[in-house]
Specification:
Blueprint: H1 2-25, E1 32-40, E2 61-63, E3 72-77, E4 83-90, E5 98-103, H2 104-110, E6 117-124, E7 131-133, H3 148-172, H4 181-184, H5 187-190, H6 193-196, H7 199-202, H8 205-209, H9 211-214, E8 220-222, E9 234-241, H10 244-256, E10 262-266, E11 269-277, H11 282-291, E12 296-301
Parallel strand pairs: 1-5, 2-4, 8-12
Antiparallel strand pairs: 1-6, 2-5, 3-4, 3-6, 4-7, 9-11, 9-12, 10-11
Length: 303
């Protein structure tokens, strides 16, 4: 008897799971899934997908293990909050722990081309148009049914609040009866306190206590700085990483320092480089690298 109940429970759970997926895909229930996304691109261009369509890596499409073909999903990269809407037209991914395979165009929009994979959240979209989701599409618009004066009223109420104390002070301060006010008129002498509150001079203190005392030395250029006037261009390798996130962090540091980094990929190694540098630019670049916290970098001539 217990075995029959167990078998019946398994069958019931199976049908409930199938019904749940179909209901979610048809909009009957909110569908939300979090996991690892990967992408596939030019190597599969022109091949037939599981839906019978020809795969085009420039289109915003994706492969999912079970969602119906034609379902439009909003994919959110949890690392950078970038979003894209994709249409399911294929089956996959066939790798454990991965929940979706997006096209090359979608991966580029999500900024996961270099890393190859990303932690994402996928949800069924109420909008059927695929493509990158811009920030303007996520902004909440003001209800057009409300009049403009409803939003301007807080600004209009502030002038009466400000002017009321100003008008009240002459009435309260009965200074003509208090004849001591001429003695208190020495306060103009005390108005020298603004001179004493030499905050502008005090604000200068951070100026001489910041960078001169903690200025970092320029990064060491392993290979030396090439001579000027050669007309050649050079490439500086800032770092080589096996962990993609470490490469991204170095890339972001260089951007924040005002430099223009790029990625190079060699098998499973991700290099962060500064390309197209002239000998005249390299000393200044070395200073910026040192300020950003980089101690040693490699240099090579571009061919």
């Amino acid at each position: 008897m217990n075995r029959i109940i167990l078998v019946f429970s398994v069958i019931l759970l199976f049908f409930l799971a199938v019904f749940s997926v179909n209901a979610q895909a048809s909009g009957g229930t909110v569908f939300k899934q979090e996991g690892i996304a990967s992408w596939y691109g030019p190597g599969f261009a022109g091949r037939l997908t599981a839906s019978g369509e020809t795969f085009d890596p420039s289109q915003f499409t994706a492969a999912h293990p079970s969602l119906p073909f034609g379902t439009v999903l909003t994919v959110t990269n949890t690392y950078n909050n970038k979003q894209a809407r994709v249409r399911i037209n294929d089956r996959g991914p066939f790798v454990a722990s991965r929940i979706i395979d997006v096209s090359q165009a979608a991966a580029d929009s999500l900024d996961m081309l270099i890393t190859g994979t990303a932690n994402v959240i996928i949800e069924i979209s109420a909008i059927e148009i695929t493509g990158p989701v811009t920030t303007s599409q996520n902004q909440i618009s003001i209800d057009p049914g409300l009049p403009p004066s409803a939003f301007a009223s807080p600004k209009e109420t502030t002038p009466p609040v400000v002017t009321a104390p100003v008008e009240a002070t002459p009435l309260v301060a009965t200074t003509p009866q208090e004849t001591t006010t001429p003695q208190e008129t020495t306060t103009p002498q005390k108005t020298t306190t603004p001179q004493e509150t030499t905050t502008p001079q005090e604000t200068t203190t951070p100026v001489y206590t910041t960078t001169p005392s903690i200025k970092l030395p320029p990064a060491v250029i392993l290979g030396g700085i090439p001579p000027a006037g050669t007309g050649k261009f050079y490439r500086i390798q800032v770092g080589a990483f096996r962990v993609p996130r470490n490469a991204v962090e170095s890339f972001d540091k260089l951007k924040a320092a005002g430099l223009n980094p790029a990625y190079e990929r060699l098998d499973d190694i991700y290099r962060v480089v500064l390309a197209g540098l002239t000998p005249e630019e390299i000393p200044l670049v070395a200073e910026k690298l040192g300020t950003a916290g980089f101690r040693e970098v490699l240099i090579r001539e571009e061919r």
